[in-house]
Amino acid sequence: MKAPNARLAAMILMALASVALAADNDNHQVTVTVNDINELAVTGGDITLTISAATAGQNPNQATNNTCGLEWTVNTTNKKITVATNQASFAHTLLVQAASVSGGTSAGEVTVSDTAQDLVTGIATTLGSCTLNYRATVTAAQGTQSVAHTITCTITAGS
Amino acid sequence: MKEIVHTLAAALLLTSLGQAADIAILNGDVSLTITTAAAGQQPPAVTDETGQLEWTTLVTDPVKKIITQTNLASPSFTLTVRAVSVSAGDGTGAGAVVLSTTPADLVMDIPSGILAMDPGTCTLRYSASATANGGAGTDNHFITFTITDQ
User: Fold this and answer.
1) Domains with residue ranges and CATH for chain A
2) How far apart are CA B91 and CA A156, in angstroms?
3) CB pair distance less than 8 Å for B146 and A126
4) Residue of A nearest to B51 (CA)
5) Which residue of A32, A36, A130 to mutate against B (max B Cβ within 10 Å)?
6) Does B105 reside within a domain?
7) So what's the ipTM on this one?
8) Contact across the interface for A29 and B141, Cβ inside 8 Å
9) CATH number at residue B99
10) pLDDT tens for chain B, residues 1 to 150
């Protein structure tokens, strides 16, 4: 009676001791996915342009600011950055130009309106940055005013 | 009783001598996804530690090592793997390996006599990284781990 129990115990032990390890190598699938990334950020915060003086007999002096900038990360192709204000109409002229551009090409000085316009073009699979050179001008006829623009810059498909 | 003890001892000995040096992956396939970046910065790397390895060696084996490689000849993104939390006395992690089609050392100095009842183990720390100029897309790797003589 003892012998069958002993053999049974041995068989069970061998079964328990064996594991799924059955080869000197094993493998599995590892998938690496990188999604489309189009990230843009304004640096330098809010700004104020104040026109406060003029030469007698001439229109007021313009006000300028170049303390802001843009940074971007784009891992896709054929992209550009556009710029627009939320103000539908205003009695002065606001202009902006992307300067010292890396990772793209400046589209030149833009008269800001509520219609999106190209600011930086030729962006593709790159990190980038630029300085935003703002310029505000007004004529004597346009009077005094204070207008708060919300300027939006957007990465979008290039033309 | 003596008969049972002798039989059990024989079973244990046969178990350890009958197997070859073996290795197995636990926890299945792995996915790493890079989804975003801070503006002006490269995308941050992503990591995964859900995979584990187990291994055994014969009592007559020389010192062993575990090597690893991918089947993907030209991946678009960088994938590294590192053996972490290697069970005490069962080997030493070789540091992070940038996966390529050339086998690279992952765990070294694996001694003989690691039994199936108490296998050597480690966690596989995968890390995937990408750059902006690397674009978007998917790399499908078939990663192989092999236990071999050191």
Assistant:
1) 38-157 (2.60.40)
2) 52
3) no
4) A28
5) A32
6) yes
7) 0.87
8) yes
9) 2.60.40
10) 555 555 555 555 444 444 578 999 998 899 999 999 999 999 999 999 999 999 999 999 999 999 999 999 999 999 999 999 999 999 999 999 999 999 999 999 999 999 999 999 999 999 999 999 999 999 999 999 999 999
